Amino acid sequence: MAEAAQGRVQEAVENVVQELERDSIRGMQATMFHCSARCCEDRAASMQQVQRCIERCHAPLAQAQAIVTGELERFQDRLSRCTLHCSDRAKDALEAGGGETRARSQLDACVAACGDEHLRLVPGMAKRMR
């Protein structure tokens, strides 16, 4: 059960990232490369001017990539904290004499709930990344 929830979350995040890459990032990459090419075509510019021009062309894409990376890292951190909490609860139940089967069942249910909770967070994360 827990693996299925984790799989659904992973698939949802991958779909969002692929959609974002296809619908936004690729266009930004194309714009960056065209802009950079124009910088290189300016024969009157010095080497430093061309370099600064290329850096300006790259800035919007770098900013977008930083936003996506930050959102994905925060999402992963939240999911990790949730599953760690589940692990701690299962360990506590096991140490309290709840039995291994019961602790495993509790862990699976808790991790599945984490997955479901984080699955509901994916649309908001996607919106922030866009």
UniProtKB/TrEMBL annotation:
Which is a Gene Ontology cellular component entry for this protein? Answer: cytoplasm
Entry's Pfam families?
DUF842
Q: InterPro entries from the xrefs? A: DUF842_euk
Report the family membership.
Belongs to the FAM136 family.
Protein name, as recorded = Protein FAM136A
